[in-house]
Amino acid sequence: xxxxxxxxxxxxxxxxxxxxxxMEMYLFCHFGVNTFTDSEWGNGNEPEExxxxxxxxxxxxxxxxxxxxxxxxxITAKHHxxxxxxxxxxxxxxxxxxxxxxxxxxxxxxxxxxxGLKFGFYLSxxxxxxxxxxxxxxxxxxxxxxxxxxxxxxxxxxxxxxNACGEGPNGKKQxxxxxxxxxxxxxxxxxxxxxxxxxxxTRWVGNEAGTSRTAEWSVxxxxxxKYAEVQTQASPEADRENLKGIYNTDDDIGSRDxxxxxxxxxxxxxxxxxxxxxxxxxxxxxxxLRSVEELxxxxxxxxxxxxxxxxxxxxNKEGRFADPYVERVxxxxxxxxxxxxxxxxxxxxxxxYTFGIDVDxxxxxxxxxxxxxxxxxxxxxxxxxxxxxxNTVYDGTCIGHKKICVIPSEKQSCGKYTLTVTSSRGxxxxxxxxxx
Length: 436
Description:
This protein is of the alpha/beta class and about 425 residues long. It folds into two domains: about 1-340, TIM Barrel, CATH 3.20.20.80; about 345-435, Jelly Rolls. It has eleven helices and 18 strands. The chain has an eight-stranded parallel beta sheet with strand order 5-4-3-2-1-10-9-6, with helices on both faces. It has a five-stranded antiparallel beta sheet with strand order 11-12-17-14-15, with no helix packed on it. Helix 4 packs parallel to helix 5 and helix 4 (about 60-70) runs parallel beside helix 11. The longest helix is centred in the C-terminal third of the chain and has 17 residues, at about 325-340. The two termini are about 40 Å apart.
């Protein structure tokens, strides 16, 4: 078993995954016929005429993203209703037959390039409009549209696949050919990460609330991510029954107690996808915005727990981000900058496992931010931060790409602290420790 744990320590991300991690935050934009019908899941029979933004401004989206420190935008090129935000020749259910007629995908891609952002797209395999859905021909149809998006809009940083299918027991049955979809992405956009419940590059965190696990592992069993590359041998205790049904909603997907039963490990980090409002992914007139404090908590629970944040901001019926949404993004950015702008003191490495923290007189230790050199693997299983008297002020698990430790207010003070790695798969490789 010890040899298997050593192998686990050497499971590494691809360059595309490292580049994705460095983005940390990007925007999701749910926009389509649902925007105009006050719906979340369209039926596929909406007339094209309903899609009628009067002041479409994708540059405003990009400007807002840039202002907020978000590094890219993912547009819902086609949602479950099958309506395409580009003039696909493979369907009439698209912008070409709407009053708008604008190629929205093109506008988003161009705006991203203009403002130095990365461009990505969401393409729903579930299509409630296509006559091919539920037949073998559908995968050809889907691949034709996927190829359009991969080849006509420049560099793509993320292709986001939703596994949703709400047809019900008497609905149409469609087997999605994800192996084929993945090959197309690798062929035309080799640097793009592919999001899917089962890999190969990034996966769903397991909820849409903006939270993550106590221990958010990127090194997970291949049983969880069947489309990902296996980088280890099978565990000597491999047992399919013990991992039967493992899914992203599970509380534990990467501890020794779980991976010990795996037939192999892979590197597939999680994405926290959530909304800037308290309900709904598409625009609704009655939606209530989250507070700045709530957004900060989401940031800590995503970027600060070895994940990336995909924050949805829905354009309104005009085709713009509503002014209160833009203002909330501005406030969020200012709040982040305020929290992490002033160093609280000095950090000194004692050895690979121990770091001394000296907080300057007159300052309080509020946050400890640390990272592993994940290019060489994710290794740290637990760590602890103690004060000068040896009292625990923070008890941590995984670190990964970034870990933000929020010190409880009653334990914030100046003076000396110690950070100690208490368990690791091989020698820990701490990239940095910062204090604020």
